[in-house]
Amino acid sequence: MLFAAFAAALAGCATSDVEPASASAGATTDARSSSSDAADRRYDRNPYPSTYKPYPGRPTLITNVTILDGEGARIDNGAVLFRDGRIVEVGQAIAADGADVIDGQGKWVTPGIIDVHSHLGDYPSPGVDALSDGNEATSPITADVWAEHSVWPQDPGFARALTNGGVTTLQILPGSANLMGGRSVTLKNVYARTMQGMKFPGAPYGLKMACGENPKRVYGSKGRQPSTRMGNVAVDRATWAKAQEYKSKWDKYEEDGEGSAPSRDIGMDTLRGVLAGDILVHNHCYRADEMAVVMDMAKEFGYKVTAFHHAVESYKIADLLKANGVCSAVWADWYGFKMESYDAITENLAILEKEGACAMIHSDDANGIQRLNQEVAKVLAAANRAGMAMTKQQAWRWLAINPARALGIEAQTGSLKPGKMADVVLWNGDPFSVYTRPERVWIDGALLYDANDPRLRPVSDFELGQPGEGDVK
Amino acid sequence: MKRLLLAPFAFLGAASLASVPASAQDVAITNARLVVGDGSGPVDGGTVVIRGGRVVAAGTGVAVPTGMRTIDAAGKWVSPGIVAGFSRLGIVEVDAVNPTNDAFANGSPFNAAIDVAPVVNPRATPIAINRAEGVTRAIVAPQVGSSIFAGQGAVIDLGDDMAAVTMPRAFQFLEFGEDGAREAGGSRAALIVQLRNALFEAQAYARDPASFLDRGKQALLTRADAEALVPVLEGRVPLLVHVERAADILSLLDLMREFDAIEPVLVGATEAWTVAPQIAAAGVPVIASALADLPASFEQLAATQSNMGRLKAAGVTTALGMINDEDARQARYAKQYAGNLVALGRIPGAAGLSWGEAFAAITSLPAQVMGMGAEFGSLAPGRRGDVVIWDGDPLEIGTAATAVFIDGVEQPLENRQTRLRQRYLDPKEGALPKAYQR
């Protein structure tokens, strides 16, 4: 367990590469095609563009189900209609209108689960050194690495997250060995031959940062800075100061076109994107006191922390997090594997919710990602026992719209709203019960898992021809 | 090795293990949705009577002795306490803080002789946290550090007292896959040589202890280690073996035929379902990982959550354990894992467990594979008074234990997590800092 805990701890620090909608692939392409001088001076913000295309689906109406819409609403005896990859209507009486009809009597429908913190592909199964590509643990600042360049699309873990977990979207983060570990990437949970084929269209990039034990241990053990928490902050501050300079030079060049182009620095590109608000910061940070320091540091340098991940002690500073508009991505009940996880409580997420701070569940784990609904069920039960009256529909926000917002993709997915991607799970019962499993999962309206159809169970290249191939996992 | 493991422990009997805690109370719990833990489903209107720290009766139509303290369960679920089928409870406080982690010893010249019983800390926070969720007993194993042998594990209770150890030196723990190969120098082939040699050495020690000189750090087996392996060789304590790959399971079964008295128990056993008939024929029980379904290593390529269900169907005695899965702290997950196995039964092509089977896999079966089924793990008369009252189905997420008895002693359910929760239900500081709020 010790080794597993270390791996988890190190793994637990990826963030996403986020570009806001204005810096997304489409906008960048427009800029490149523009004839304006300023556009010519811009470097490509999106050199590895998504090639993801939704798979074909059939117009589908699911009736007689309990619906949790992902934004806090519940519809009993509800129905949901989707076609051409998009949600068309959610309500109670909906006309079939030529769609395939599924009678979901006794079943539940939710939006697909979004895991804001995963290392699938970067730390794939099997977990051998040859495939271990999640931590560029060679320097405390590796803002230049991009998690997407490590993603192995054949990781068998993607299939488990889909079929057992109902996970339709996930953010892959680089690990937490480093203060600035690099860019994250957001994926649709659809097997493809290439990473680009999984890449969520238009999702902004993220920057993974880490505070606390991991960076100080990894580099302290090498006899170099940082070896302490104060060292962590010192290296961060020095780096942000350089990033401000870099941004200023490039902004001036891109806007005014004076002089020759400044030197490119791939890592600084990412930090410039953060300072410009185009790339979202996902900061691995456990302790309340450290989160407070990081929020001050963000103010000092003019950036924003989108979410603290593994925020075990967020419940202690829910008011401060709310005031700063910073989200917390947390586990339900992991505790004690390292010192900075010692004060974990199962009610963490619920106390944040009660206090009005943004919060969500996350896995950081190839097993945990298969049961995020159960993790939320634990929190919900603990919350209600502690006197915080919370509902299932409220709690599903922790699995859907809240992580979608933290990833900057809430306009496209994260809830069952007309016009959004038809990322939908039909559960064979109440998804907060241990006795419930996903029955069918659609991504962009394409049926990609059906418990009743053995042909609709993905088998990655790695598992083909191996013992247990295609088995129910 | 073909005997049921109950046999080697018959000699223990009630007498040697029946120390009654001073504060044990006689108590009857009535009107219960009663689960005996033997694989059967719940029955309503049940009663449990505990006297002298032991169950004296459980079932329907059980009379409450006159004058005995009686708790009306009001229809709530009542069951035996959860038994952690494989854990490191009580020997680790914070995994990554080495001075608090007594699970393994990289630098020790000793291995099989290592004994966790004297170092179990009943005040380790995971004890109280898991007790509050209905875990009452645990099989506690050391972890390998510098040998294929990890040492001698213990069976403990999770009671709020300083006497945690139910059975010291209850088993020896061995790594027989990738981890064992690493400790043996780098291959499974070397591992087999090392294991056979160690057992030969132990046989030599057993024949004539006085002539077995300790050859110090250079020895392939120190005197202390050889001595510790004798009860294993003689089948007096089981040999728990972590093994995942089907081929390794078969080669282990072969090897064990050479040492006929040894009582192996397979631990982990991800690929066991693929050789279930051979395991059943050998009469070897399994403490399996319930939900491992990823090819996490090349020795787990056939991983599936149907492993336990298929082993059960093949007639293998299979308990649920959590090796390398939060085993120092999260024994409480066993309930959730068992519930997931029930859910699996609804998926075409999968093999799950019935509710009663799943509950037995986390109560009576771990006790049984350790040869201690007569001591705990069910509410059959004579078992220790480890009883939990739940506010719902104990396998369902969010069900809470409302009362926990261990050896008939009602247990406190508070721990530092419940205290932290109370302190921070309102996170804002008041007239004094939080440190003054207790």
From TrEMBL, chain A:
The protein in question is named Imidazolonepropionase-like amidohydrolase
Which keywords label this protein?
Answer: Hydrolase
Highest taxon of source: Bacteria
Family (UniProt) = Belongs to the metallo-dependent hydrolases superfamily. NagA family.
Q: Where is the composition biased (Low complexity)?
A: 21-37
Specify the Amidohydrolase-related domain's residue ranges: 108-445
Q: Where are the transmembrane segments?
A: none
InterPro entries per record: Amidohydro-rel, Metal-dep_hydrolase_composite, Metal_Hydrolase
Q: Quick one: where's region Disordered?
A: 21-55
TrEMBL record, chain B:
Give the keywords, sorted.
Answer: Hydrolase, Signal
Q: Which residues form the signal peptide?
A: 1-24
**Name the record gives this protein:** Imidazolonepropionase-like amidohydrolase
Q: Which InterPro entries match?
A: Amidohydro_3, Metal-dep_hydrolase_composite, Metal_Hydrolase
Keyword Hydrolase (UniProt): yes
The organism is: Sphingomonas japonica
Record's Pfam families? Amidohydro_3 (PF07969)
Q: Where is the Amidohydrolase domain?
A: 352-408
Family named by the database record: Belongs to the metallo-dependent hydrolases superfamily. NagA family.
Show the SUPFAM superfamilies listed in the entry.
Composite domain of metallo-dependent hydrolases, Metallo-dependent hydrolases
Note the superkingdom of the native organism.
Bacteria
Q: What is the lineage of its organism?
A: Bacteria, Pseudomonadati, Pseudomonadota, Alphaproteobacteria, Sphingomonadales
